[in-house]
From TrEMBL:
Segments of this protein annotated with the region Disordered: 254-291
GO terms for biological process, alphabetical: late endosome to vacuole transport via multivesicular body sorting pathway; protein transport; vesicle budding from membrane
Organism, as annotated: Paralvinella palmiformis
One GO cellular component, as annotated: multivesicular body
Identification of the protein by name: Charged multivesicular body protein 6
Length: 291
């Protein structure tokens, strides 16, 4: 970046200085502002302002010099340009923070305006009823002109009420559109997250890997079928019976043994004599005989 020299009262030229001012303005106000660091742009503007102020102090002795007016104008322009440059960068930094609140603020403002319109409608409806009653009393008292004037006022308020209805309908539609746009934004954000997750899954397991796994599985199944076919063809029916018998023996050996009852188990004999009666049974029989 080119910086402007500190001119004294003898080594400046108006055309050269005017070209530098135009270049500085195009630099700070043109489309290349986003590609130039803010510190360099501010430093260039400060150097230009200091240069023009020094030339202005050196030229104030000759008050008839027409370049002084131009210099004053350029000093004020570049001071405002420097201030605007800083503000623009502050706005660019704050725009990212305000973007998240934009939808909420707009929706809230529209809802507040909607509520105000509804309150205004209620007031107009109450006033219309009052005007109608007043017009009736005026007609009863013979004041036709005043009643006519009041009815004109009532008609004007009704037209305002109709306009309010249209505005309220538009606001309701805008609120609905904004809320629906928020839902759409959330849906799009969700779809974007889903697409990113799918891409990551595809990176982990590509189509070629899936096809390779399926081919290997199919080959393993075919190989097992071939083994089963070879074994079944090489064995006779007797061999199959032997295989099943051996399988049953192995199964029985793997199960725990069940204890068997002894054949020579001695149990006590049943007594041949009649058992003595208990005291309870004796009392029961005596009671039956007594009855």
């Amino acid at each position: 970046m080119r910086y402007w020299p500190l001119f004294n009262d003898h080594d400046y030229h108006s055309n050269f200085f005017e070209v530098d001012l135009i270049n500085l303005q195009s630099l700070l106000r043109g489309g290349n502002l986003t590609t130039i660091p803010a510190a360099q742009a501010n430093e260039a503007a400060e150097v230009a302002v200091r240069t023009m102020k020094r030339i202005l102090r050196n030229c104030q002795a000759s008050s008839k010099d027409p370049f002084i007016a131009l210099l004053k104008l350029k000093v004020s322009q570049h001071q405002s340009c420097l201030k605007t440059t800083g503000q623009r960068h502050e706005i660019l930094d704050a725009s990212s923070r305000q973007q998240a609140q934009t939808w909420l603020c707009r929706t809230q403002q529209l809802k507040q305006q909607r509520d105000k319109l509804k309150q205004y409608q209620k007031r107009i409806n109450v006033q219309l009823e009052k005007d109608r009653e007043v017009a009736k009393r005026l007609l009863q008292n013979g004041k036709r002109e005043k009643a006519k004037l009041l009815l004109r006022k009532k008609k004007f308020q009704e037209s305002l009420l109709e306009k309010t209805d249209n505005q309220l309908e538009n606001i309701e539609r805008l609120v609905h559109d904004l809320e629906f746009a928020q839902i759409e934004a959330q849906v799009i954000k969700g779809l974007d997250s889903g697409n990113k997750a799918l891409k990551k899954m595809h990176e982990l397991l590509s189509i070629e890997d899936v096809e390779r796994i399926m081919d290997e599985t199919e080959e393993a199944v075919e190989y097992q079928k071939e083994i089963d076919a070879i074994l079944s063809d090489g064995l006779t029916a007797e061999d199959e019976e032997d295989v099943l018998r051996e399988l049953d023996e192995i199964t029985k050996m793997s199960l725990p043994s069940v204890p068997q009852a002894e054949d020579d188990l001695h149990l006590p004999d049943v007594p041949a004599e009649k058992l003595p009666e208990t005291q309870k049974e004796r009392k029961h029989k005596e009671a039956e005989l007594a009855s």
